[in-house]
Design goal:
alpha/beta, Beta Polymerase, domain 2, 5-stranded mixed beta sheet, two-stranded parallel ribbon, 9 helices
């Protein structure tokens, strides 16, 4: 296990809310499912900023990949079940195998391929708890820039989407050590 994933696992173990969310997802046993985006990103940035109180999560993004899903509303069923299990958070559940049509992309090949289209590279991170109790973390672009406090535009998306997200989410105010990485535009 690389040092970033080990550190991420240790940080998760110290966060009761995140541990509970990961356990709920594990118990639901959704195909190829992870909790992604701010759930992971914010935890790392909070740690690197030495915050003693976790930044509030607007939602918990569950992603999964199921090409054989027979109902387009299945994600709503999963979302409802997760809300019943842990009602204090706002769950957002999306089958990434279907998201290409909403985003105007070619069909995604797998979960990492879907994540590789997200507007900023540091958000394209996800984690899940395995039956063994260990964590499995994935990142479409690796973990280096996340742990280096960077925000990088993904050239697969329009730069205006990236800029709007950075501004509207107040990332540079919440985490002042962040820097915008312009190398991602090449």
């Amino acid at each position: 296990m690389n040092k970033e994933i080990q550190l991420l696992s240790n940080l998760m173990k110290q966060d009761p809310l995140r541990l509970e969310a990961l356990e709920c997802l594990r118990l639901l046993n959704i195909p190829q499912s992870y909790i992604a985006a701010g759930f992971v990103r914010n935890l790392v940035w909070d740690y690197l900023h030495k915050k003693t109180v976790a930044t509030h999560l607007n939602d918990i993004d569950v992603i999964y990949f199921d090409l054989d899903e027979s109902s387009a509303d299945k994600c709503k069923d999963y979302q409802h079940t997760l809300h019943t299990m842990m009602p204090q958070v706002n769950w957002q559940v999306r089958n990434q195998a279907l998201m290409h049509s909403r985003n105007g992309d070619q069909p995604y090949k797998n979960i990492l391929d879907a994540m590789s289209y997200w507007p900023e590279k540091e958000t394209a991170v996800a984690i899940r708890k395995l039956a063994t109790g260990e964590f499995e973390a994935i990142a479409a672009f690796g973990f280096d820039s996340l742990f280096n406090l960077q925000i990088t535009h993904n050239s697969k998306r329009d730069k205006s989407i990236f800029t709007k997200r950075v501004t509207s989410k107040n990332w540079l105010e919440l985490w002042p050590k962040l820097s915008i990485n312009t190398d991602g535009d090449s």
